[in-house]
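Ex. 9. Protein: glucan endo-1,3-beta-D-glucosidase.
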Amino acid sequence: MIEHRASLSIPLDIARLVTADYAPVSATPGLAFLKGYLFRATPLAIYIITTSIGKTPAKETVLYTLTLLAPRTTASAHADGTYSASSAPVFAPNETVPVTTRVVQTGVVQIPATLSDKTPETTGVVDSGLDLKDKVTSIPIIQVPITSPISLIRTASNATATAVIVDKPITTVTMPSGDIFADPIATAAPPSQFQIRNDHPVEKKGVNSTTPLQTNKFFGNFLVGSQSAPAFTHPYSVAWAAGKGAAGSWGMAISHIEASQRVFGKARPGEGGEASYFINPIGIQSLIVSSKDLGKDTIIATDSITAFSARVHLRPNATAMPDVSFPLVQGMAFVTAQFAGAVPVIQSGVFFRNVTKVTADPKPGVAKFNFHLEDGRTWRVYAYATKGDPLELQVINNGYAEAKNPFYGIIQVAKDPGNAEALYDEAAGVFPTTVVLSGSTRSKAGSYTFKFAKDGHQQGTLVMYALPHHVESFDDTTRAAVREVKLQTTTKGIATAVMADQWTMVEPNLPLDMTFAPWDPERGTMTKMSDEARALIRGIAVQEASQNMAAQSDLDSMYFSGKALAKFAIMLTVINDLLEDKKLAEPALGKLKQAFARFAANKQKFPLVYERSWGGLVSSASYVTGNSGADFGNTYYNDHHFHYAYHVLAAAAIGHLDPSWIPENMAYVNLLVRDFANPSVHDMYFPQSRSFDWFHGHSWAQGLFESWDGKDQESSSEDVMQAYAIKMWGTVSGDAKMAARGNLMLSVQARSLQHYYLYTKDNKVEPAQFIGNKVAGILFENKIDHTTYFGANIEFIQGIHMIPLLPSSPLIRTRQFVQEEWDVYFSNGRAQDIQGGWKGIIFGNLATLNPKAAWDFFNSTDFDPSWIDGGASLTWYLAYSAVLGGL
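Predicted structure tokens for glucan endo-1,3-beta-D-glucosidase:
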């Protein structure tokens, strides 16, 4: 059933709603039966239709989003706010229908009878509401007013300096040789100031592992919650059927969504008429691979977990060996199922129109079946028998086909877009098990390679699907392996088939010359400004450097504390490198070192702990408070690349100014990097690349939460910040490979984010009805929603992709993009109407396009300090504008 969203103003006088047609709805998120249907009620301001219900006019109302979940007759709501919706399977496994068998030139066709009393499930489920359960809705800028300093900082003399800045700070590092992903940053245990815990609030489901586990990857839904939410491999999604759906199966359901099946949200009032979101239906069980023994006692388990892959097992019960296992790898062209003696079952909620056993095997030992479904789509099924009998399938009914004998080998399922049969035949029997990542740099170019580990038939080369940013950057060898077969993905455009056992992507222009100074893609690093601008900025810098750095960063959030530290650190690079005022910078640097030392000693309000259950460095906040959303869910592995990278960026600036500070702080800062950006599989304390997804070309922010739309991320610009922080810390600390990874990551993001997050009018990847929004808002694996978790103000939605303003910002946010976005949302005085710190963010962003206009705003006589959020400085905004504008 499709889930539809509507917002209703519901009277808070809930007694009036208790009638034959209406059940009580409270003023908090919950469930309600309304005219025979079960709804989830969530207080949100995002709507399609607004109406009023209630027998009498209500004086007080609250705006809800109601998501239709199921007919009342098949659903029940529970006191804990959950619901269950179920109906008897359309077909029981032992229910037979007449099946006609015909011999044709290409094979034997089984045609089940057409039934009038049963309907295939072809529409799926669309939950277009924004799920705020376990989500933090705090605005991600520091809004506490910054008090004026009581006294101004004293400039240093040689006798009074508390920190000494080198005459020539480090700005470059030697180009590394060899694989930049091969070596771990470090292998030591976390330093003694970090408590070690063996427990974590989130139970690992179906995983028995003593090594660090991935927490932010595509297969995460198999490890938490019900274990039945989808995993998006692109272009397919797979989900444990868990006895639900038309087939009532306990196997692995496979789905692929066409662009024509998407649901688009209506434009919100006051916006540009673009779709407010687009979403792909889930729950369409095109084909399901299962076994005869799987039932209500089925257990799901996962092993072989890497940054790119995992293997999921279905066992008939807790003590049984797996009946069927699924090696899942991003980009796989076939969904592969491994059998070791179980009786395979192929099911469908869409129903079989006919099933053909092809007479001619595509290669020795590989049988082939064509499944034509009631939605008009064709799926190819291949079975490679490694021993015993080949696969023989008997169609029992329109949704169930069973093997005649136990099977040893693999069954592979792939959707044919219409021109893939020959390619699939050639590749059948071969499947990927994981990906080995490597990379290198040479001169200004960088490259990264996916080497696919493979198994199966000895004949054949792998076919995998590549995303648009991959294809655009393939080297010549990989480009030659591109085929004409294409499949739609959920949120990443059209995937292209590539027949090769490895891919190499090249980024020809790494931003090697980018430092702490303003930077332009064409002009490079820039430092010059007029004496008048320098004098004006110095006066403001004295004020801001005199602020209480220790107090501003002494917060109960690693995120907000890191933003404060990074703000002051960037400001000090301006004072020293652009204003050339070492005597002002040195005492301020001393204050910043003291503020940073609190975190290096792990004495902040919620110290970090190393937990062994999943394997990572997390805030103690959720352990102490019991709140999963404390510090934006840091304990649950949300946003680590944001939180920790602000601290890494601050450390890079301190080390840039005073390299002698680095040795004492190296282990701590590297520990933070290891948690979210460990490059190697040889670090036994952290998983490889927890946050950044080298397949998608950007990070995922969501940690250990079940999500029916997959992983998600809001802030593309903070994702860029973490890459920039890695680059700069690697540079100042002398870790050439880390700096190279940061440079490569920035270049990959410049390509991928401009396809998937930031939309110019010529974007051909995302839907035409959506790109006018200019930014994604929140990008999920299964949908893109032009909103934020903390509100739908346009300055929130656009601005979350601007913060923080850094030298790396113009690399990602091009002048063309900034111009188009400004024209849509902020031109003609509309930016002046924005309030608070978001106003400064919007005009800081303008400096990339029109530095003179930004300078005039920040230097205006009526400038209000509240327009600068607590994670930014007026010193930096003015310096950035002055240097880029030659002012």
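Check your answer against this statement. Confidence is low (pLDDT under 50) at residues 1-88.
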